Structure formats: structure tokens, C-alpha cells
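Exercise: predict the fold of this chain.
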Amino acid sequence: VEIYRHLAENVPRILCLGPSGCSSKEEQREEQREELACQLLLLAPLEWLLLGEDPAAGLPQLQENNQPSPLCGHVFKVGEPTYSCRDCAADPTCVLCMQCFLGSVHKDHRYRMTTSGGGGFCDCGDTEAWKKGPYCQKHTPTTNKDSEEVSKLLSSPLVNAAYYNYYCMLFNDEVHTYEQVIYTLQKAVNCSQKEAVSFATTVDRDGRKSVRYGDFQFCEQAKTVIVVIAADPLRVEVMHSSVVAHQCFALKALSWLGQIIQYSDGLRRILCQVGLEEGPEGVNSSLVDRLMLNDSKMWKGARNIYHQLLMNSLLMDFKYKKVFAIQFAKNYRRLQTDFMEDDHERVVSVTSLSVQLFTVPTMVSSLLRIRTQLLPRRAEYLQGRFQFDRYTAQQAFKFGRVQSLIGDLKYVLISRPSEWSVELREKFLEGLDAFLELLKCMQGMDPVVRQVGQHIEMEPEWEAAFTLQMKLTHIISMIQEWCSTDERVLIEAYRKCLSAVSQCHSGLPDGEQPISLSLAGHCVDTFMYQVSQDKVSIHLPVCRLLAGLHVLLSRTDVAARLPEQLPPPLLIELPLRCLVLCAQVLAGMWRRNGFSLINQIYYYHNVKCRVEMFDKDVIMLQAGASMMDPNHFLMIVLNRFELFHIFRFDLVQQNNTLIEEMLHLIITVIGERYVAGVGQVEPFDEVRREIIHQLSIRPMAHSELVKALPENGNKETGLERVIDSVASFKKPGVTGRGLYELRPEWNKHFNLYFYHYSRADQSKAEETQRKLRRQSGEDPALAPPVPPSLCPLFASLVNLLQCDVLLAVEGAVLQWAMEPRGGGWTESMLQRVLHLVGMALLEEQQQLENSNGEDDITFLYTAKITRHTSGSVLALLESLQNAPHLEVHKDMITWILKMVANIKTIRERSSSASTIRDKDKAERKRKAEMARLRREKIMAQMSEMQKHFINENKELFQQSLEELEASTSADAEHRCATIARTALRLTLRTS
């Protein structure tokens, strides 16, 4: 009680005794006086009370018995370098400060250096953060003693002194600019520009600054002026000087606590226990809970100091860190809400501590069991589909705050569970429900309509949606990785995602006008929709998550046990619209929509977004095509590309670029199999193929390859595992840089229509590969490479190559190419058709080579293109082989005709072999029948001779029968047999 009375009386006398707006020298002298008086009159008594003796003697003695935490605990400043080991770090958030890094084994490993955004925490000494080498030389633990029970500190109300001076306190916000604050202060408190700049700088650094000191009326007047001048008022309060004094002392006391616990691990544990101990009020009554829940009410300086104290105490002890993490998770929703209403940066919010708590593997399962959801409720923040162009400034600001919190999901999902409990499954699926609510709000956001007539007047907002997409990319991938570790979770997640896709489709306004399409003897029912006239969106996260889960199902044996499925045309509809939009933009049909749409298409294909956007759309088309009739699939594709009438009525008034892109999409759907679950490949093969095609463009430096490859959640590309097997490193000369060159044996894997190539990349790669083949004397035809086999769930994709609709399309393009001056075709169009023909021939050749007999072969492409009509694909190719205007394609056509001849040879050889096998089988059967007849004839002769012998030797048999009657039945049987044999021998001798 005496110490509290002492502080209540002396704090206002020592701190905050006058205005701070004086000269800098006087202000410095005042600060020095306050520091000295604070140390002698305020902190020194606390040290005497704590130690029971002179601090000068007690602190060194206390330090001798200190067992410092093995955790470093260094808090990073903005711009400070951080180091992460790519070989040993558990995840990318595990970093070291420079001092610990230089004293650790990781300096000799592969490491990544970055600059901190401030507020981070050095993970040296955390055994869960490092696979090996968790300690540097400085923090290697020596002995471990059990923590002793500590006493509890008491608290009592603060005694307020009555003073009559006040401060006009200006607080920091992230809304106003420096110029606005400086202008307002010059008008309100009548200060110079230099003083106003000093005020503004201090407010930005510390979070608040007093701009006037005096009686209440004097300060209130300044406050009124500040509020009136600014259109958006600055935050300013009139505060009693004693309150300000006690607040300043509280900060000094927190800093002092942070220093004093460095002397003894026992003091640190005492502070942790007292801070987490619940008060008489019950829930959320501990000092730590009260600090967290009032975080948004504090100014920046106060937040920084108590955050630092939490890091130096609670986060330095594994036991109390876990308790603190649980409390943090229980209050997470309240902390989220406070952060959204706050205007300070995330780095000075208590929510920024999530990276220290949610990334610990042993804590994740415990935190997930707490009945809380990391995502905000839809009713609170997610209302329908996001419409960023209609958001007010306040709505946009709050949504930006939500995005920073979504990143906490990434921390929780970094550590996948090794074992699933019933409760963990339940909580994960609850979280997935909330996440799907977020994705449904993104589904179809920022839709566009083709501008006709005049150019769009104002560029629509597009960056907010893609910023959100980029933040969610790794989270979506991690959710799929979690699902892949448990069969029951995967099935349930797939069902939930199917339901979400169904709900998204039910909300679409189109589909009310059914139409029927017919082509090449096939009919399909669909509905009226045109990308060039109706709304279309590039954002389809729900469909893409379903595509990712579908691939995971393909890699397991549960797909056959999952009866629920949406109609395939429904699955492909929205991804197909998006791909058609990209094709139409490339064809120049959307020029009047401005740069906004062009930028969206760019990021859709960009390496930062394509894994969960473009790639997943392709997978969804592959999934739908594998479930439906290939002719129906292609007819729907033609209709959505608005090209159906061209091939239906043999018109040539078409957009050539659209046909090229449509053919390219078919090549992609059939040929892109380097995804584990689509093709029978591993992730290693996928990375290797990416590197092969990047180096097929030109030799590249290491940094260029890293930028061209997508990163996973751990910021790894997999480059180092693959690069040495496919490329050789050419060391730099005196000037220049080292480059990787593709090894010649990997050129055969080059695919001209690799789906991650831009048109420019494709052109450069084609030129490079043709040059290499000319130099090496190889066949210059850029034939498609041999593809990997498809997984069973996607096996029917190959039927697209031999379906009637595709044959009709191929025949139409080849027929157009017969006319040298015809404007209805392009060389790129013909090149794509030849590539498709080559893919089909390779598929048939593989089936022939891998089959055991004629019954196993279901792919009959050569039979279909060799129909004895003038319009057959093969006949057209033979006609085009020597066409002078197609000299550039002669090599490819020649290769195709050789492949056809080779396949015919294989079929004839297999047919001949089959004929020989049939003849051998028939011959063996004939000989077996002859042997059987011969045996029957001999047996008949033997039977006849036995009868003849018995008739001629009746006396002998009569005597034998009498003897048999006197013997046992067994002996009788034996003797009968003996007599029979004797008779048989005699008969044979006489014959």
C-alpha cells in the first residue's frame, strides 16, 4: 500500500510538469531530468522492494543464478535483415537475426535473406522451428532446472492526485497525411512550420504528442479548432496532467520490467504467472487478457512497449507461450473486430503476434479444438458477392483490414497434422465451411460485359480482387494438402465443395433458353449464352477448389465410392467461359474495355496466380470432358467460342484467332497431363517439365528460372532438386552472368504448345528448337512429345482425339488450307491441327506397343482418317504434302504420314502374329483330336480281343471264378485284374 501511495503522490510531481513545445535543447534537458528523477524516486524503490537490498549488489547476485531462456527473442526493427535456412526451417516464418545466424550451422546451408517489416521475432532456440541446428553458439542450453513455484503479486486501485493542468493530446492515425496534420497544427496552436513538423513526426513515431498545455479551457479551445479545421477530424483529446503522468510512468514501468526479468529466469516466470492469472472477475480478467482486449484503445508507443514485454516474457517460455496462445485464440474474434475498427498498421496491433503462436506445430491442433473460427462471420463482413467498384472509402478500408487477417489462416495451415482425431476433423470442416462462404463471395466478382460502340469511360476497379486472390492462393493450396492426408476429410470436403458450386450455379441468371446443337451426326442440349454479350467473371475460386479436390480424389481409390456428382456440362461451364474470355481478348474483341481487363488476363496467366486460376480451369475442363461424350464436349466448346456455325454450315467468315485459340485449348485439355492425379506423374516431373520449357526458350540465369516457377507455401520452387539433371551450368566470363543450358537429351520433351507459354515465348522457343535441330541434323518437324499415361479417372480424355466432331474440325481446316489464297485459314491454325493429328497418332502407337492383343486396342484413329473418300483427313494430308504454299509445314506432314505408315506396319505385324498364333492353336487342336481318335480306336480293338480270348478259353475262366468265390473280395478283385492282364498279354501275342 505504501508503494502505491508513494507512486500516486510522486508520479505527477516528476513526470509531465509542463509544455513540451519549447526549444529542442530545453526539451532534451527536461527529458534528462525526468529520467533521472524517475530512476531515483520511482523505479529505485521498486527495485529495493523486489530485491530486499541495494540493487547495485542484489542484481549481479541475482544474475549469477540466472538460467536464461534458450530462445533469442530479438524483436526485429523495420528494414532489419532476417535469415531463414531453406534446408532446416520448418516453414518460411522461421527466421534468425544476424548475430544468431552467423553463430549457427545454417550459415553453411542454403539460406534466404530478407528484410523485416518490423515486429518479428528471432526463432533461435525454438526446437519446433528448425529440423536441425535450433541453437546458435550463444543460445545453446547448458543445464535445465525445473521452474519453482512463484509467489503472486497483488494489485490495488491507483490513488489519483488532484491537479488543475491539462494536455491537449494529438493522436496518430493512418488516415491523414503529414501535410494535413502540419497545416491543422499551424492553424490550431499557432506554431511555426518547424514546430508543426516536429509535432507530426513525434505523433507518427510514438503515436501521440501534446500540442498544448494549460488549464482545461485553454486546451479545449485548441481541440475545437483542430476538429473544425480538418474535413476529416484528427483524433485529439484533452487529458488531465496527472493521468498523462501516470500513463508515462506505466510505460517506464513496463520497460523496467522488461529489463529486470533479464537478470533472472525466476523473475520472468513470476511475471508470466501473474500476467496470466485470472482475477476475481473471472473470464478475460487476467492482466494479459485486459491488455490484449484494450490494444486498439492504446496509442502506438504504449502498444510497442507492452508487445515487447510479452515477447520478452511469455513467448520466451514454452509453458506460458502455450497458455498465452490459447487465450489469444479464444479472444481472436474480438481482437479481429477491434483491429477492423482500428486505423493503425498491423505491425503495431496485438494481432501481429499470430505468426508467433499459430505456426508452432504442437499448438495448432490445440488451437483448432477451441471453438472459434479464424474467418469473420459472413453476416458481419461478407454480404453477398464482393463489389469493389461500389465500395465506399470506409468499406474499402475495412476490407483491406480483413485481408491482412486472412493471412493468419496460412500460419495455422503451415503444419499439416500427422494424425487426425474426430474433433480435429470436425473443427477443420467447420473452418472449411466458413472458408467456402468467403470463396462464394468471391465467385463471379467484378464481372465484365463487352463494351460495344464507344470506349469505356472509366476504368473499373480490379486490383482489390486480385490482391485478395494472391493472398488466398497459398491458403487454398494448403487446404487441399490437408485434405489429401485423410480420406474421410477429403470426401466430406469434396461434397461440401460440390454443394457450394451447385449453389453458385443456381444463382446465375442465364440458362433459361435451352437450345439443341447438332454436328457430325451428334446432338447435344445446352442453353443460350454468349461471352461476347453477357456478363462474365474471371474469379471462380469455388470451381477451382473443386478441381483441386477432384485431382486428389483421382490419386486415391475413393473416387469410385463417391456417388454424388454434378452434371459434367455444369462443371465445365464457368471455367470454359473464362477461357473463352481470354481468347476473345487476345483476338481483339474487347479493346474498348480498357486496360483493366487486359491486366486481369495478364495476372490470370501470371506465375503468381495461375496455379489456382488458369491451371485449375484447365483441370476442371479435363474432369468434365472425361465424364461426358467427347462429341458433346467439343460441341459445347465450339458453341461457347461462338464458332459452331462455322463448322456447321462450312462458312469461312470467321475470326481466325478464335479458331486458333480454340484448337490450342483442345490441345491443352488433351495433352497437359503433368499434374499428379491427371497423369501418372509425380510433382518432381511437373517441375522438371516447367524447367525444360523455360530453357527451351533460351539459356537462363538461376534468378530468371526462380521467377518463372510458382512457389509453394514454403516459398520453394523445387528448382534445386531438378536443375542438375536437365541442365548444364555455363560459368560466367569476365563480364556477364552464369547461365543454365538445356541438355540435348531433353529436347525430345519439348512441346510447342506448352500451356504456360505466352505467344511471344512460344515463338522464341519454336525458333530456338528449329535452329538446334538444324545444327544437329535431326528431323526439323516439331512433333508432339510422347505424353505420360492418364490416371483412370481421366483415361477417357484420349477419346477426344478420335471423336467425329474433332475429325470434322480437322477436315474443315485442312480443306481450307487447300486454297493458297483463301482467307479462311492461317498457318498457325493449320499447325495446331497437324499437332492434334500427331497427338492422336502417338496415342494410337502407344496403345499398340503396350497392348497384349488386338482386343485391348480401343483407339482406332488411323482407321477413321483413312476412309476411302476424297474428304478424309489422310487424303487431305497426302494432297497437302507437296503443296508449294505449305513448304513450312512439309516436315510435319511428312512426319505424320510416316507415323501412319508405321502404325499400319505395327497393326499388320500384330495381325500376322495373331494369324500365326491362330494357326498354331488350330494345329495343336487338330493333333489333339487325332490322338484322341487313335486312343479310342486302340481301346476298341483291345476290348474286341478280350472278348475273343474269353470265348476261346472258357474252361480257364470257369476255374478262376470258382477260386474267386472262395477268396475275399479284395483278393478277388486283384486276381480278376491279374487274369485280365494275362488274357490281354496272351491275346496280343496271338495277334
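Check your answer against the key: The CA atoms of residues 11 and 245 lie 6 Å apart.
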